Amino acid sequence: MVTEPATAKYIKRNTTRPSRHDAVTAPIPFLKSGEDYGNLGFHMSWKCITEPYVDEAESHRHDFPQFLVFLGGDPNDMLDLGGEVEITLSEDGKNLEKHVLTTFATVFIPAGVYHCPLVMKKVDRPFVFYNFALTDQYKKIMG
């Protein structure tokens, strides 16, 4: 009888979540820090972006901080995004500031900061979109 090592409980394989967008067809790797991972209060996901689409159309905020990461898919130059992303940010929900990303970028969204629309505007080659939220429960606050 073969037994698993005691530390096998620390390894999860092929955990994914479904996509909400027709443009994202590849599996979305997903990790939520539940009881199996110490209830640390975070979740993260990775998307391979292969075509333009609107990821999130409406501005909203959260009661938790969030990080968005955009990473080029060329293993020889991950700093060149290989596309164009537009994200709108606002500290008050009224003064909307649009940002255009064409290189590797991280976006820190403190709790309460409005963000989106988030538009994958141009895709010359696939790139990675990584979402890291410091919460157990992902909830949007609109308007």
How would you describe this protein?
The chain is mainly β. The chain has no helices and 12 strands. The chain has strands at 16-17, 28-32, 43-49, 53-56, 60-61, 66-72, 80-90, 97-103, 105-109, 114-123, 127-133, 141-142. The strands form 3 sheets. The protein has a 6-stranded antiparallel β-sheet with strand order 1-2-3-11-6-9, with no helix packed on it. It is globular, with a radius of gyration of 17 Å. The model has no long low-confidence stretch (mean pLDDT 93).
What is the overall number of helices?
Answer: 0
Main sheet record: 6 strands, antiparallel
User: Helicity level, as a percent range?
Assistant: under 10%
Could you give the order of the helices and strands? Answer: EEEEEEEEEEEE
Low-confidence stretches: none
Computed over alpha carbons, the radius of gyration is 17 Å
Share of residues in strands? over 45%
Which strands sit side by side, in order, in the main sheet?
1-2-3-11-6-9
| Number of strand elements | 12
* Silhouette: globular
Instruction: Tell me the span between the first and last alpha carbons.
Output: 58 Å
